[in-house]
Design goal:
By secondary structure, this protein is mainly α. It has twelve helices and no strands.
């Protein structure tokens, strides 16, 4: 019920996070778009001219993977400090503290949606097979939000007690980047390891985005249900961990 009761506060904190994120930047939100584009150009040159991957629409293949990954990386890293970063709301007021995590993830969620919106014209320009299946985006991105929010609850709770967690998580994100099919086609994974490789939810998620955005393919119900199950488990587990650890937030902050 706190989502309804505190919806105005959640929205105000979300907008505040967005403003703070870009207020000291000359180009503002444009950096959110330039960053994946510039990274795509670098990776495109490396993997097309050095490693020579043969992949249809490789530029878009890369860009979709990068934008999808950015929501997980930016959302979790930002939300990790959401409790510690607002001590006044933790120690002086009584509000459900999940609100702080929720608003932080929502700000990254909005940024991610805008990045995907800017991607759409490029799909037409660079010759992607755009079909009505693109309308699956709200469904898939909504499920992705659950996954990021669930992970963020755990990270934000533990970060109150272990301030080095951001350094550890940064390493995990770098490893995850190369363990997910972002910069290389999934076809290069040996058949003997493919079954284990597909256990990574980000693999299924990124490939699902590419299916309906790049190739015009309808996402399989099995993959959507699997992702939804992962999202539900992540939120449930994250809420359980957060509730267990929040008792001493005020003391630790």
């Amino acid at each position: 019920m706190w989502l309804v009761d505190y919806r105005d506060l959640i929205w105000n904190l979300t907008i505040s996070d967005l403003k703070v994120k870009y207020q000291s930047s000359v180009l503002g939100f444009a950096w959110s778009l330039l960053n994946p584009l510039l990274m795509m150009l670098v990776l495109y040159f490396v993997f097309m001219n050095v490693f020579r991957f043969e992949q249809e629409n490789f530029a878009l293949y890369l860009l979709i993977g990068l934008i999808a990954w950015r929501f997980l990386a930016n959302g979790t890293m930002t939300a990790m400090g959401s409790i510690v970063g607002r001590p006044g709301l933790v120690t002086k007021l009584y509000i459900p503290r999940q609100i702080l995590v929720m608003s932080s993830v929502l700000s990254s969620f909005i940024s991610s949606i805008l990045e995907f919106v800017v991607l759409i014209p490029l799909l037409f320009i660079l010759g992607a097979k755009v079909t009505p299946n693109i309308l699956f985006f709200p469904v898939v991105h909504g499920i992705y939000f659950l996954i990021v929010y669930g992970a963020s609850l755990v990270l934000a709770a533990f970060f109150v007690y272990f301030r080095d967690l951001n350094q550890v998580w940064d390493v995990v994100m770098q490893a995850g980047f190369f363990l997910s099919p972002i910069v290389y086609p999934i076809s290069i994974i040996p058949a003997a390891f493919l079954e284990y490789y597909m256990l990574n939810p980000m693999t299924v998620l990124i490939e699902t985005y590419r299916e309906f955005l790049l190739y015009g393919v309808t996402p399989s119900p099995a993959s959507l249900l699997a992702l939804l199950a992962v999202g539900a488990v992540m939120v449930a587990a994250g809420t359980l961990v957060f509730k267990r650890l929040e008792r001493r937030f005020a003391e630790e902050i």
